[in-house]
Amino acid sequence: xxxxxxxxxxxxxxxxxxxxxxxxxxxxxxxxxxxxxxxxxxxxxxxxxxxxxxxxxxxxxxxxxxxxxxxxxxxxxxxxxxxxxxxxxxxxxxxxxxxxxxxxxxxxxxxxxxxxxxxxxxxxxxxxxxxxxxxxxxxxxxxxxxxxxxxxxxxxxxxxxxxxxxxxxxxxxxxxxxxxxxxxxxxxxxxxxxxxxxxxxxxxxxxxxxxxxxxxxxxxxxxxxxxxxxxxxxxxxxxxxxxxxxxxxxxxxxxxxxxxxxxxxxxxxxxxxxxxxxxxxxxxxxxxxxxxxxxxxxxxxxxxxxxxxxxxxxxxxxxxxxxxxxxxxxxxxxxxxxxxxxxxxxxxxxxxxxxxxxxxxxxxxxxxxxxxxxxxxxxxxxxxxxxxxxxxxxxxxxxxxxxxxxxxxxxxxxxxxxxxxxxxxxxxxxxxxxxxxxxxxxxxxxxxxxxxxxxxxxxxxxxxxxxxxxxxxxxxxxxxxxxx
Length: 484
Description:
With 484 residues, the chain is α/β, with parallel strands linked by helices. It has 12 helices and 17 strands.
């Protein structure tokens, strides 16, 4: 007996029994078949999970990387005006607050009230800053959560926790979990797409890595597909001169035959992942050009999304593209907008950032609503943590900066069975601690999964001897007050 062949055969059998029905191994071939034929065969959904009635079919996550200041956008604290420049050093020591290295050595921590005006909006009376006039117009569509919190105080671990459910490397991203749990409804486009929108705020923004949209220990086909903001949205989208679709199909069939021989010999699921990626790339050569051709949109639509709607790679263009993806069956679109890490000169930079996102985010909600899609499309807006009430660096009446603050921050949700017209949670007078209805990032994840018909306790994948979950092993709960 050839020991290598015997070993490979044993590995293949173990892989088959362990992975069959989970969207991996031999069952992964089902994803190459038309969706009507493959049904649910390319995903793992326990029977009791299927009993949850989904209120949302898809998600758009508007990720404000760098952490917007809740004090200057949604968390109105008028009493702070009379305490301008009050030193909070002793208060912070009493709170036992962990500080970043950027302000831990700062001699004083002077209180910095927001310079922006706040007003109440809609029947709900939600408080919003004048930085967000368009967002204010849809106050009654939003569930504004002012009591978000996290343990991470620096960007990389905070982003990983926010977008993968763990501060540790190697875990699947939100979109990858949804691709794994929900399967795909369009065989010509990925189920998970990532867009990187340009920003007009400060330069030198925080770097991010593909871990935030990576598959971790899930099969590679669940990774987010990042479309480029300039040039062709996907490299090598066009065939080389002299290569027509018939020839490309023949080349791909030959390559798949070789890969199948490799899989039969070794049994590696990644070999089939590669085959599936080639097939998806072939189909995307036809589907992506039509998807990204925004010239089909009306002038009225462009006007709604704002002056940057025709600028490729802008946040407005990205939101419009996200709506087009939702129409075509993409189930999770994540738009990253960087530049919110405002340690200094915050009033100037946050104006630019809010101008980037305010009208397009409003337009996205209106666009989905008028097309009858908002009810089953969940839209989430927010960053990875909040900002401090005290100033980093020099403080004047007109200028200040804010450091990282994980204990409370604000996010909003709309559509997808979310109960709009409410402000959920409260913070103390300093927007420092939560005083009512705390919501951890894990609770947000659990609520999102619930709206999609998935139970966060049972959407699992066995890896390293554990039933891994997006929400991890620590407690997480669905926030029932936020949903219809």
